[in-house]
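user: Please supply your own:

assistant:
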Amino acid sequence: MPLPLVIDTDTAQDDCVALLAGLLDPRADLRAITMVAGNVGFERQVRNAFLTLNAAGRLGEVPVHLGCRHPLMRPWVGAENVHGDGVGGLAMDDSGHAPEAEHGVDALVRLAAEHPGELAVVAIGPLTNIAAAVLRDPDFVRNVGRLYVMGGSNNGRGNITAAAEFNFYVDPEAAKAVFAAGFEVTVVPWDPLTLRQAVFGRDELDAIAALDTPLSAFFTRVCAATLEFDRSVGIDGTTHPDSLAVALLLHPELVRRTGAYHVDVETAGELTRGYAAMSWGVHGLDANADVVEEIDARGFFDYLAHLLATPTAPNRPMWTPDGPLTT
């Protein structure tokens, strides 16, 4: 039976690919997309989510809920320098569809209560909405069956500062609260997973382009700006932390090794804001998370390639600044 699922996202680049997995994988029953302030401007993120629904041929089928537009206690910090607008300049006719009136936090609380112990939530942006849902409903933690978090690094390097991964850096107070709340949580960290095991180099990107489907053309376009940035900082390919998080939830056979850790997040350090301290069991701290340590990298690529080979018919034409998006 497909898994009831919510994807909490700041839609740009690989978030779009993660949504495609939620929309097209037969193991997923995507009940809602909830938006949180993160990668790019909030309204831009919302348009990117609708563009992705359109690319999958699912426009109008999955509700989009607007969540928190700012971190809990800090000004918003974006990543437009990495992602541009998040979709490589793609556009479509936006008329006739709109987000739901229900707030994203309320949608998370409601859906968890409707599917107690069954609903899976994959949080691939800052954890503001998840922390707010904990505050809104004391039963939310117990009602969520599984929480997968893309964030932090396992005693490794950051991607926005030397110490911190972007999602935890943007709202460290929210991340700290989520790990203290008591969820059954699995962490998909930036380092080592994304940085060392989920980079698609030239051969992989050429293989995806050769699929010659509407989804492969969409993928190539939305990942182009991030590919250019990644190469400028010494990463020879595109990075896919968000789609990896969804893939590991839906296909646990892609996980080769996990470890039980006590995860906490730094909120006060001047140089270490957002640092995820992952204690591996020698410091007298009880584990509060499973942290994925190793994946089947080839299996993950094959999974996404198979997904992107899916024949779809976008609901509306999409175009780039240079003309229509074509395969």
